[in-house]
Amino acid sequence: MTISMYDALIPLSINNLENLSAILAKAESHAQLKKIDESIFINARLFPDMLPFSRQVQIACDTTKAGAARLAEIEVPNHPDVEKTFGELQTRINKTIEFLKTIKPAHINGKEELKISYIQREKEKNFIGLPYLLNHILPNIFFHITTAYAILRHNGIEIGKKDFLGN
Predict the structure, then answer these.
(1) What's the domain count of the chain?
(2) Which residues make Cβ contacts (< 8 Å) with residue 10, sequence separation at least 6?
C-alpha cells in the first residue's frame, strides 16, 4: 500500500488543526474559569527568544495553507497576523481548514518532482515537491503545533497527549 501526497498532507493537517482548535477551546475555558486575562496565554512563550503562542498558531496555519497551495500550484491565501484573542485564533484555524477542504487529491498527487520557489524573509527558497512535503511542511506543522501545546501546558492548561493526538 502506498500513501499519496494528498493523504500525507490534507487529512493529517485538518486533523491536527482540529486538535489544536480543541486545545485552544480548553485554554479559553480555563482562562474564563480562573479569571485570567487571555492575553497572558496568547503572548506566552517557553523562552524569551521564542515566538509567542499566537505566532505558533499563526505559523502552523500559514505553513499548512502555503504548503498545500504551492503543491496545488494555486495562490497562497493571505491571512494577516492580527489575532489577539482565542476567538480570533479559532477563526484563523477555521479559515485554514476551510481552505484545505478545497484542495482535492488531483491538485497535489503526482507533484513529487514539482519545482517550488518562493521568497520568504527576503530569501529565495527552492524545493522539490515530495521533499518539500516530507522535510519542510510536515515537520514545521508539527513543530509549531507542539510548541503551542507546550506553551499552554507550561502555563497550567490541563491538556495531555490525548488532546494533542485527538480521537
Answers:
(1) 1
(2) 68, 100, 103, 108
Residue 12: what pLDDT?
Answer: 97
Q: Any idea how long the chain is?
A: 167
> What range defines the domain where residue 44 resides?
5-165
Name the residue with higher pLDDT: 137 or 3.
Answer: 137
Find how far residue 109's CA is from the centre of its chain. 21
What CATH number has the domain bearing residue 48? 1.20.120.450
Place of cell 491571512: 79
Determine if the pTM surpasses 0.85. yes
Report the mean per-residue pLDDT for the chain.
97
At residue 85's C-alpha, the angle toward residues 82 and 91, to 5°, is 70
